[in-house]
Structures are given as C-alpha cells and as structure tokens.
Fold this protein.
Amino acid sequence: MGLLNDTYTLLLRELLIFKKNFKVNIIRSMIFPIIFIILLGAFGSTPKNVPVALVNYDNGPASLQFMNLLQSGNSVRVVSSTTQQAAMNLLSEGDVAAVIVIPGGFSRSQIPKPDVYVYLDNSQPQSAVVVNQVVNQASSEMAGRLAAGTAPGSTPNPVPVVSNYAYGAASNYESFVVGGLVIMVAAFGSVFSAGFSVISDRELGNLKAFLTTPINKFAILLSKIGYGTMQSLLSAYIGLAIGIALGATVAAGFIGLLELIWIVFLVGLGFGSLSIALAARSKQLQTYALIGQTIVMPTAFLGGAFVPISLLPPVLQSVSVVNPLTYAVNAVRAVMIKGSLPLGDLVVDSAVLLAFAAVMVAIAFVLFRNTSEQLS
C-alpha cells in the first residue's frame, strides 16, 4: 500500500499543478491539433506512385494495353497478384490502395467489354481518388482507341468500370488526418508533460527534497509516468473533438471511442516513460525539448500519421514495421474509418505497444534511479 499511496499522493500533486495552469494547458493542447488539421487538410491532394494490385484474368493484347495505360503516368504503381483473394488480402492489410480486376474475355472483340472491377480502400481517401481518376482515364483512352477502328459515327463504350469501396466507404480526408493526429498529439502530450515535470522539479529543488523523504522512490517515477499518460489522453481527445468539429467521423461509434482510450493509454504510457528517460539524462530544458521533438516528429511520420505507409519508400517502410506508432495509427484509423478494429489486430497492436511501454518503463527506471542516487 505504501507504493500505491505515495504514487497517488504525488500524482495528485501533479494534477493540482496542472489545474493551477489549466487555461494555458488547454489552449496549448488545442492549438497544435488545429494548426495541423488545417495544414494537412490542404496538403498532398495528389499523391504519386499509389500502389495498386492488378489481377489480370485475361492476359490478352487488350488487357496488356489497358495495363500500360494505367501505368502511363506516375500516379499509380501496379503490383501484380495471381488471384483476386491474394490481392484483396493486400488491400485489407493496407499494402495497396486498390485492387483492379481485368476479367477473362477482355481481349475478345465484343462491345461493350466485360466490366473492370475496382475495389478501393477509402481509408486512404486521396489515394482512392487518384486510383479512380487513373482507371477512368485509362477507360476513356481505351474507348477512344477502339472507336477509331469502328464505323464512322459509332460511339462504343468498351470498358465499363465498376467501383466498390471495400473499406472506409464513408470516410473523408479529415478522418484520415485526424486518425494520425490523435496519436501524434498523444505522444507529444506525454513527452512534453512527464519529462518537463521531472526537469522542472529538479531545477526547483523539489526532486531532491522528495528523495530525502520516506516516499517510495519508484512512486516518484510512477507518478510522473501517470501524469504523462493522463496528459496524452487529454491531448488526444481534445484533438479528436476538434477533428470531429471540422468534419472527421468515428465510424465505430461508442465502442470505437473505448478502443481509442486503450490505444492512446498505451501510447502515453510508452512515450511518458521515454520522456522520463530523456529527462533523466538532460541537464537543460531546452536540450530536452529539442531531443523530444526530434524523436516524436520523425516517429509519427514513419508511423503513417501524415501519409500512408504504402506511399513511403521501401527502406522507410521496413523501418515502419518496428515503429510502435505504426500500430497505434493503424488501430485508430481502423476505428475511425473502417468502422471496427478486428480482435486479432487489436491483440497484435496492443502487444506491440505494451512491449514498447515495458521496455521504456525499464529504461526509465534505471536512468531515473541513477539520477536519484546522484541527487540524494
């Protein structure tokens, strides 16, 4: 009970300090999401090299010509798949933004041609728009080429395109942006609260005073981590509320909000512990702020907070696999855009974030203990 009581008492102290500067803390938590939603909402409306899976059941001259038209620009990058099921698996895993199926008999001379099916992942709204434009443009060019070989005055419609939104049918770009922003502000909220509290207490002499009292030393660490985690939850939900006000949606409803609490909690726990480790080794507040920002921004970028992972270069995609924020961003976007987070994905995402948090807590404990021994 001593550890729990000490942790509660110290955490209550952190919350009282937060309450004293309540207006400043709330305004700070609001400004960051507003700026990023506005900036990212008008950014990158035409991504390049959007990966799409193409299933060609025809393999005739007309289908090959259609494939060449799809790739005539730099808008899409075609990844061939042997079967439609394999292609749909790539789509569900987020490795491609769309699946294009060219049916058998496409190269035969009948008009109209059999339907070309396009399955889109609208959880990446910008990419989905680009794919739709490219496919429809290729269809029009194919129609023009075939019309040139028909009788004068005839206007055939040789390539009908049927589009289906396999995922995120009701999504929008604001939801995509806010899905990544929620995780980014959660990480920032924990880093720029827990670590700042440690450095502030050290500069004011409070930390040394705590270490000379009978208070459990581990309780000091836990209270800082707890404060950072609570700040990350607050920052994330303020960002979510602002995003919803500006047009974002949470497709999973109330259950999705509960899942968001869990994911954001794990992010706050991990990055709050990371901030303690950084603060234990930082002598000045300016140095800590610079290091914290240098870590969080690239980590958020590589986690897909700004652009889909599938649009990153292959080298950066391999780095994203070991980035804990990748799993957090994917989980939040599944809740906000796809409408549900499958149990298997929830288990995997939670396991990765828990492992990251456990490692960060262990590192923070060792470094904080060393700092405590030097002060006491």
Remarks:
- The chain has a mean pLDDT of 83.
- The two ends are 24 Å apart (CA to CA).
- The chain has two domains: 2-43+173-375, 50-167.
- The chain has 13 helices and five strands.
